[in-house]
């Protein structure tokens, strides 16, 4: 794949389902095709007054930045801009993160083959289109409230919930093993028959487009799911739906692998 750039709007990601993101796993996933991480940029907006006056906030921010630098990410720390609207008297807080990220991606695209963008912000659609026109492939990773226009503009979109280990999951066994708890989608379901099938990613592969788990090149696994195992109150007539992300246990019985204790974690 060549040279890869990773660009993360840290606050946007954290506020939209990505709290606890493991940046080491992100780097491994982004370079899964054998490319090299040429740019790893995290953009962090912060409250300057709070940074000076709140010891816990300052310590937490510093610890977060130190962790990122341990993984060789460059951290762009940008203070929030605050001003008063003279007409309404309202206090307004703004950030320059969007502009900074957009400019950096455009400049760096001169020597990058692929850009991995983590945000839910639809304002990046025009930037994505411009990057593609310059010959850059763009992959978007998001969690909640991701702009549909952004998903459609990207060469590929991956829900961060589905990437093994990217977010913490309370599981006693490694992701995908019998007894483990994973996240996936319900790609096939019949309300008449009362059952369907769940699909989940098992490995970092350059064959994410091979969704048929029967194919030897597919990085996905499929498990049986009975209607009785879905959480109470779920609108089953909305299934199948690739926008619904579920968390479930992988149980092995005499019929093979099945999904149990199925709970929806995101329905956007």
Describe the structure.
This protein has 268 residues and is an alpha/beta fold. It folds into two domains: 3-160, 5'-nuclease (Rossmann fold); 181-266, Beta Barrel (OB fold (Dihydrolipoamide Acetyltransferase, E2P)), CATH 2.40.50.140. The protein contains seven helices and 13 strands. It has helices at 10-18, 23-30, 48-53, 55-70, 97-108, 125-133, 148-153, and strands at 3-9, 36-46, 74-79, 81-84, 91-94, 114-118, 137-142, 156-159, 181-190, 195-201, 220-226, 241-253, 256-266. The strands form three sheets. The protein has a six-stranded parallel β-sheet, sandwiched between helices. A five-stranded mixed beta barrel has the order 9-10-11-13-12. A two-stranded antiparallel ribbon has the order 4-5. The longest helix has 16 residues, at 55-70. The chain starts with a strand and ends with a strand.
Task: Please specify the SSE layout and strand pairing.
Elements: E1 3-9, H1 10-18, H2 23-30, E2 36-46, H3 48-53, H4 55-70, E3 74-79, E4 81-84, E5 91-94, H5 97-108, E6 114-118, H6 125-133, E7 137-142, H7 148-153, E8 156-159, E9 181-190, E10 195-201, E11 220-226, E12 241-253, E13 256-266
Parallel strand pairs: 1-2, 1-6, 2-3, 6-7, 7-8, 11-13
Antiparallel strand pairs: 4-5, 9-10, 9-12, 10-11, 12-13
